Amino acid sequence: MGKKKSSFSGSLGFVLAAAGSAVGVGNIWRFPYLAAKDGGGVFILVYLALVLTFGFTLLTTDIAIGRRTKLSALDAFGAISKKWDFLGKLTFLVPALIMTYYSVIGGWVTKYAVVFLTGRGADAARDGYFTDFITSGAAPIVFMLVFLAVTAFVVYFGVEKGIERFSRLVMPGLLLLVAGIAVFSLTLRHEAGDGQVRTGLQGLGAYLIPDFTGLTLGGFLKILLDAMSQLFFSLSVSMGIMITYGSYVKDDVNLSRSIGQIEIFDTVVALLAGAMIIPAVYVFSGSEGMAQGPGLMFISLPKVFGAMGGVGQVVGALFFIMVIFAALTSCVSILETLVAGSMAAFRSSRRRTCLVLGALSAGAAIVICLGYNVLYFELPLPNGSVGQLLDVMDYISNSFLMPLISFLTCVFVGWVVKPKWIEEEMESSGHVFTRKKLYYVMIRYITPVMMAVLFFQSTGLWK
Ligand code: PHE
């Protein structure tokens, strides 16, 4: 192995890889069900405002830290200030925790794609199908292993030949698929049992038109917090991933422009995913169907595909293939962050590290799969939900650690190293740091306060 630091070939490769990390099941499954639950247009307006402010701030911070230190998350904070080395270690915990379960969800998606591809989509529409599958012994483990093997394969080939090449191939295809299925969704019409005809365009209205009637301050705050936690997860910020990817960006790349493009890509895919899923669910199951929550992708959607008849098999297969793409590029970014950190810590080669971490992740993911049968329990979580192993990992990483890390990062960058340090990096290539004033206000005042609120809210310390 040469001494040369791995890097993306240029700005486009970086943007597509970072968008690949950002666009995942969060966009396709979580965003639509939150939008449906939180009054459609109102949620969307709030979310857009947050992307342009908080999303921009956190993404800029991560990427600039990465490019300036040229280190992965594990070491970046310590290299800036010895006292803050703990923040790098804490940040590294998030991808480690997410890695244990993301490939399990990837396995579920793979299973559904196979079911639709083999023309057995009608099975998936049956009541109880999803629960039967995840609680069964071997199948979820086998599908998870297949998904994880592909992830490790991509990471094994490195930053440019593996991750960048894979993202260049997959991301444009994903965009086309999500746009194509969204257009198809709008053309749907269906006559319900009571003779009422519902169309895709009406569903689009239910999704996009904000409904402010009956909205209370408390209700609005709830929407705000839902949108905020969605934003974190969706942009893959505050978990070291964007620091690691930032460390692979060449010095002459215009960071402001790339960051804008990543924000747009991630948001457009989320909006299109909503335009694809919500009208379809509305047409076949009415407004009640839209309030399904987490069961939307694995339980309601297969029923929608089933109700479409023959064409539903094809659309269902395309849909789940698209979700596999989205989930793979995200899982790749998680594994890459772990590999990059461990390569530096143990001074080991990429290939060796990738194999060892791939095997460890497989072991952990098997335990998570067993959480639905042998190791089943029901643990009430501080945020009010009840969870199994997978939900517990998700809770610790997303609801507990991520707001905490963002808060600490804002304090560190805003008050210890000072935002000027980020500004210098943003302008080092000779380009302007657009939205600079906004960045200063956000990183010092608004984001830390909001992160503290989010932390207290999701840990149940404040209701
Ligand atoms: N951002 C990804 C999504 O929207 C999820 C993700 C989480 C990716 C954590 C990497 C790390 O689904």
Question: How would you portray this structure in words?
Answer:
There is one protein chain. By secondary structure, the protein is mainly α. The protein has helices spanning 11-22, 25-37, 41-69, 73-80, 85-117, 121-124, 129-135, 139-156, 159-186, 200-208, 217-235, 241-246, 255-290, 300-307, 310-346, 350-370, 389-417, 419-427, 436-458; strands at 189-191, 197-199, 379-380, 386-387. The strands form two sheets. The protein has a two-stranded antiparallel ribbon. Strands 3-4 form a two-stranded antiparallel sheet. A hairpin with a 5-residue loop joins strand 3 (379-380) and strand 4 (386-387). The longest helix is centred in the last third of the chain and has 37 residues, at 310-346. The N and C termini lie far apart (53 Å).
Short description:
The protein has helices at residues 11-22, 25-37, 41-69, 73-80, 85-117, 121-124, 129-135, 139-156, 159-186, 200-208, 217-235, 241-246, 255-290, 300-307, 310-346, 350-370, 389-417, 419-427, 436-458, and strands spanning 189-191, 197-199, 379-380, 386-387. It is mainly alpha-helical and 463 residues long.
